[in-house]
Amino acid sequence: PINQGNPKVLKARDLPSVVQYIESSACENVMLMLGAGVSTSAGIPDFRSPETGLYSNLQRLNLPHPEAVFEINFFRRNPVPFYTLAHELYPGKFRPTITHSFIRLLAEKKLLHTCFTQNIDTLERRAGVPDEKIIEAHGSFATQRCIDCQRPYDDAKMKDHIKRKAIAKCDSCQGFIKPDIVFFGEGLPSAFARAVPNLRKADLLIVIGTSLTVHPFASLTGMVDESCPRVLINMERVGDFGSRTDDVILLGKCDEIVLELCQSLDWEKDLNRLWELT
Ligand code: CNA
Q1: 178 in contact with ligand 1, CB cutoff 6 A
Q2: Does the complex come out with an ipTM higher than 0.95?
Q3: Span 114-160, pLDDT tens digits
Q4: DSSP 3-state helix, strand, coil percentages of the chain (rounded to 5)?
Q5: What's the rounded Cα separation, in Å, for the pair 92 and 126?
Q6: Does the keyword Mitochondrion apply (predicted)?
Q7: Which helix (H) or strand (E) holds 112?
Q8: Is the CB of 250 within 6 Å of ligand 1?
Q9: How far from 126 is each of 129, 215, 255, 277, CA to CA, in Å?
């Protein structure tokens, strides 16, 4: 339900008020939560957008249900669908978006505390967001290991296998090799648990391009103080956005909204400079 109360921190629940708040001394620690929607304009499909999302295009992989591609028990029986998808999503093929450069800009302006991302495409790093500011909650393609004996596997060999859509197997036990991407039912990286308590320090939470359906990630929105304004930038309203007095919902394409935000902050030149570097 939408909370009808007047905002307590912001002037109003709109973009100009968010801009004014960012420019004020009250806003020091900005936290971000990202999902696949941040990367769709780079050409990487998200999961759930109707028609363009991966889930509606996975029939060709012969899966019992779409989520199976990220289920460890299914992978154990049949790793081919995952490798097919990995081949399509593999980092290096895509250029970061304007929204990724906005994140770097927040870091350069010394406003970014932590960027929590569900994405596995590593485009935040590619855009130049400092490593120590990024929490890849669902892991990434940066490292990989055997699903049986857990032995790490060589980066270059993995890259070559995914390029050829060939299934990599462990040198010692012949188990399948899986990138350190968090599958359904697997625990999140320890860095995630260590970073979560910092949300209490947030002066501003910005959530971009996620359906907020995957837990525990989605529950982070509830961990910032009641007094912390929360901004949603997404194609649709998601989660419990609107239930707090200082929630702001900005619906539309994130690149366009981020650009508008930067124009109002007089950051547009900086934003374009960073994007041209990518
Ligand atoms: P999702 O469930 O597919 O939701 C995406 C959300 O973004 C939806 O609400 C869309 O309406 C919205 N959206 C799509 N395009 C835009 C846009 N241009 N501007 C604004 N909003 C947009 O994806 P989630 O990230 O919420 O789901 C979590 C999964 C998706 C994580 O485990 C990821 O690992 C996984 N995933 C990652 C990638 C990637 O790394 N790029 C790609 C696909 C899936």
Answers
A1: no
A2: yes
A3: 999 999 989 999 999 999 999 999 998 889 999 999 999 999 999 99
A4: 40, 15, 45
A5: 9
A6: yes
A7: strand 112-117
A8: no
A9: 7, 26, 17, 10
